[in-house]
């Protein structure tokens, strides 16, 4: 049974990406076990709970609301792992960490669509997500890498299609790549490349025509003087 929200409104950012939020629910501060829920479309497979941001709603509130609806748990919401960008489906998901303090026996999705929840080790969760939501494996990879990040630092923007552990942070790579992808300097760079190629061609032409100046140097030489008149 597919979950439907007839009254939900999709929210998009200024770049046209749909705004979502999700939560990595951990059993303790050790963050050794995470909670996954069954997919509403394929109930034999497991996913990270999350959903769309509602109007006038902060992403952190969305994350807490979604885990209550989908997983039936509550807890202490902690750090933001990052904003995970999926350019194929055009959505950005802000992912938080929650230490679970309460598990309800019944919850909204368990009653309406029969959704289940289960605790997995990090390695088991990575294997389960690979079967249905491989892009969400990036959430768990970032969970490992973010424990010692400065708490006041801005959350990074991370590609869901990157390699294991690969991140694209707005303060580093993303900023550096902007001029090359969307601004005028890209054209300038192309122009410079063409100029270099032309310069190489000019150098080749100059080297291939280098004998010409030597030939030109020979042109000013005077004609040979006539032989001397024999004396009688």
Q: Considering DSSP H and I runs of 4 or more, what fraction of the residues is helical?
A: 25-40%
Shape: globular
Mean pLDDT: 77
Task: Determine the number of helices (DSSP H or I, runs of at least 4 residues).
Answer: 7
For this structure, the quaternary state is: single chain
| Poorly predicted regions | 162-223
Count of distinct strands? 8
Radius of gyration: 33 Å
Helix/strand structural class: alpha+beta
Percentage of β-strand residues: 15-25%
What distance separates the N and C termini?
Answer: 129 Å
Largest sheet: 8 strands, mixed
How would you describe what is shown here?
The protein has 232 residues and is of the alpha+beta class. It has seven helices and eight strands. It is globular, with a radius of gyration of 33 Å.
Give me a quick take on this structure.
With 232 residues, the chain is of the alpha+beta class. The protein is built from seven helices and eight strands; from the N terminus they run ββββαββαβααβααα. Strands 1, 2, 3, 4, 5, 6, 7 and 8 form an eight-stranded mixed sheet that branches.
Q: Tags for this entry?
A:
alpha+beta; about 230 residues; 8-stranded mixed sheet; 8 strands; globular
